[in-house]
Specification:
The chain is an alpha/beta fold. The chain is about 40% helix and about 15% strand. The protein has ten helices and eight strands. An eight-stranded parallel barrel has the order 1-2-3-4-5-6-7-8, surrounded by five helices. The longest helix is centred in the last third of the chain and has 19 residues. It is globular, with a radius of gyration of 17 Å. The structure holds 2-phosphoglycolic acid. 2-phosphoglycolic acid (PGA) binds next to β8.
Length: about 250
């Protein structure tokens, strides 16, 4: 059984998809699908759509997140947005270190921790992503990779807190349709929780750790049946209101 003090969170990362009208249409179709006991739902649009999405979601209880921020509060950083700007536009969550940011924009644990700290400074909850590549898994390095990454990340976080959310996302399962076997995801997340616990102590039992990588309506029940998995970070299946609605209402599937 999942520890009841941990919040279940189902988050949709829209990546670089949707125009403003498509984003608004999504929200208008998705909101009526929510049930009174739905878990925390988060929509994470491209930053240029945050204002439109947060406007549509206002008063619904569904939260808005930002996919990426820069860690400085302000300055001459052309093309970047600050945590203050994202929070001011209505974001309460901030993705940090998604594998696509690590792969294409060379983000590492030091940068990811700085972004998480900046998110917290402006009252947003960081969702810190980590996970191994296929080569690392095949060569039996998964646990080592997770250990090194968690230790490097936590070294850059100023104070422990249950505001921080983690997402275990094996890189080989993102956008590939190759979902991790629930027992493998559970094992990795249990291991991550243990590593955080070594450094942060009892608060770790209250920290939500999500699974991400090809989560769909057809596999979410098995994933959420795992006691250490506290929710899902979803890409493809979060782009359509009906499939995201099914994910948020996974208990009814
Ligand atoms: P996916 O993406 O659900 O399309 O695999 C997950 C993610 O990138 O967070």
């Amino acid at each position: 059984m999942r520890n009841a003090s941990r919040q279940v969170i189902i988050a949709a990362n829209w990546k670089m998809y949707k125009t403003k009208e498509q984003a608004k249409d999504f929200c208008r179709s998705f909101l009526p699908l929510l049930l009174p006991d739905s878990p925390e739902a988060v929509i994470i649009p491209p930053s240029i759509l945050i204002d439109a999405v947060a406007g549509e979601l206002k008063g619904s209880g569904v939260k808005t997140g930002v996919q990426n921020i820069y860690w400085e509060n302000e300055g001459a950083y052309t093309g970047e947005i600050s945590g203050e700007m994202a929070a001011d536009c209505g974001c309460s969550y901030c993705l940090c270190g998604h594998s696509e940011r690590r792969q294409y924009f060379k983000e590492n644990a030091l940068i990811v921790a700085k972004k998480a700290e900046a998110a917290r400074r402006w009252g947003m909850r960081p969702i810190i992503c980590l996970g191994e590549t296929l080569e690392q898994r095949k060569s039996g390095q998964t646990m080592n990779v997770l250990k090194n990454e968690i230790e490097a990340l936590l070294a850059g976080i100023s104070k422990p807190g249950e505001d921080i959310v983690f997402a275990y996302e094996p890189v080989w399962a993102i956008g590939t349709g190759a979902v991790a076997a629930p027992e493998d995801a559970e094992e990795a997340i249990n291991y991550i929780r243990g590593l955080i616990g070594n450094l942060w102590g009892p608060v770790t039992q209250k920290i939500s750790i999500l699974y991400g990588g090809s989560v769909k309506p057809g596999n979410i029940s098995q994933i959420m049946a795992c006691p250490n998995i506290d929710g899902a970070l979803v890409g493809g299946a979060g782009l359509k209101p009906d499939s995201f609605g099914m994910l948020v209402n996974y208990k009814k599937l």
